[in-house]
Write a structure and sequence with these properties.
disordered N terminus, seven-stranded parallel sheet, globular, Rossmann fold, alpha/beta
C-alpha cells in the first residue's frame, strides 16, 4: 500500500506497508527488496552546500548511506562509498552519482578490519586528494530474543562493524582532515530506548553516542566537528536481512509507538546529515540528533 506523503513539498507517494521478506545474509541487498527504499526526494532543489567537498561514507551503497550519497552529490560533493560485498547495489549507486555530475569511488571490504579501513582512506585520498566529510554509517544487526543464545561471534561482529570501525576510520582519517572537516556517526533510537531482541545492537549504538561526544571535545581543537544522527525505524536492507515476521508490525501503517504511523524512508533521514556536514551547523558539536517520527512522544 502507498499513501500520499504530505509533509514535504512536491514529494511523491511512499510505501507505508511492507510485505514479509527475508534475505539470508547481512547486511542485505537493496535491489531484492519490495518495495524498494526511496533514496531521493523528487523535486528537491540543490543549493551547492557541499560544492567540491569529498565525502567518505561507509554503507554508502544502499539504505541510509545511499540516500546520503545521493543528496551530497546533488549538493556538489564527490563520494567514496564503502561497502561489504553488495556489488550490484554499489554499481547502481555509483552510476546514479555519476548521472548527478559527481565522481564516485566504490570500495569493497570488511570495515571491522583496521587495515581495510586504512586502505579505504588511502584510496579516497588518492582519488580525490582530500577528505572533508567522514560518515561512519554501516552497521550489522542480529535479532536474538534470548540473551543466553547470543553467540560470541555475533557479539564480536556487531561491535567490530558498528563501533570498532568508527575508531578505525577516525584514526586513519584524522591526520588528513583539515579545519572545517566534519565527522558524522550513525547511532539509532535503540541506543536510548532499547529493543527486545536487540541488546547487542543497542549497546553498540550507545557506544557510538559516547564516542561522538568524546571525539567532539577532542577534535574541535583541530577544527573538526563531530556529531551523530539517531534514526528510528527506517526501511533499509538491514531490515529485510534481519527482522523475523513478528517484527514487521513495527514497520506498518499502524505501528503503535510511532505517531506518524509508518517507517521512515532513507531520503527522510539524509537531510540531517547534510545539515551536520554543511556550514549550517557550524555551532553544533557533540550532539546526537534523533529523527524517528515522534517515537519518544508516547502517543
Amino acid at each position: 500500500m502507498y499513501a500520499h506523503y504530505p509533509f514535504v513539498t512536491k514529494c511523491e507517494n511512499v510505501p507505508v506497508e511492507f510485505p514479509l521478506q527475508f534475505q539470508p545474509g547481512q547486511p542485505g541487498l537493496e535491489y531484492l527488496m519490495h518495495p524498494r527504499p526511496v533514496s531521493e526526494q523528487p523535486g528537491r532543489t540543490a543549493s551547492g552546500k557541499l560544492q567540491n567537498k569529498a565525502a567518505l561514507i561507509t554503507g554508502g551503497d544502499s539504505g541510509i548511506g545511499r540516500a546520503i550519497a545521493y543528496l551530497f552529490a546533488r549538493e556538489g560533493a564527490d563520494i567514496a562509498a564503502v561497502y561489504l560485498n553488495e556489488h550490484a547495489d554499489a554499481a547502481e549507486t555509483q552510476e546514479r552519482i555519476r548521472q548527478l555530475g559527481r565522481r564516485c569511488l566504490t570500495i569493497a571490504g570488511d570495515i571491522g578490519n583496521e587495515e581495510f579501513c586504512r586502505q579505504a582512506v588511502r584510496l579516497t585520498l588518492s582519488e580525490f586528494g582530500k577528505i572533508d566529510i567522514l560518515i561512519n554509517n554501516a552497521a550489522i544487526l542480529f535479532y536474538q530474543p534470548d540473551i543466553t543464545q547470543v553467540s560470541a561471534d555475533q557479539l564480536e561482529r556487531t561491535f567490530r562493524t558498528n563501533i570498532f570501525s568508527c575508531f578505525y576510520f577516525v584514526k586513519a582519517a584524522v591526520p588528513h582532515l583539515r579545519p572545517g572537516s566534519v565527522i558524522i556517526n550513525t547511532s539509532s533510537i535503540a541506543s536510548d530506548e532499547g529493543y527486545e531482541g536487540f541488546a547487542v545492537y543497542s549497546a553498540s549504538k550507545g557506544a557510538i553516542n559516547s564516542l561522538s561526544r568524546s571525539l567532539a571535545i577532542t577534535l574541535i581543537k583541530r577544527g573538526i566537528r563531530v556529531n551523530a544522527v539517531a534514526p528510528g525505524r527506517t526501511w533499509t536492507p538491514l531490515i529485510a536481512a534481519t527482522f523475523p515476521p513478528e517484527m514487521y508490525r513495527f514497520l506498518g501503517t499502524f505501528a503503535p509507538p510511532v505517531p506518524i504511523r509508518r517507517a521512515a524512508q532513507p531520503f527522510e533521514i539524509a537531510p540531517l546529515y547534510l545539515y551536520l556536514a554543511s556550514d549550517d551547523s557550524s555551532f553544533v558539536i557533540g550532539q546526537t540528533i534523533h529523527v524517528n517520527g515522534g517515537e519518544y512522544l508516547g502517543l
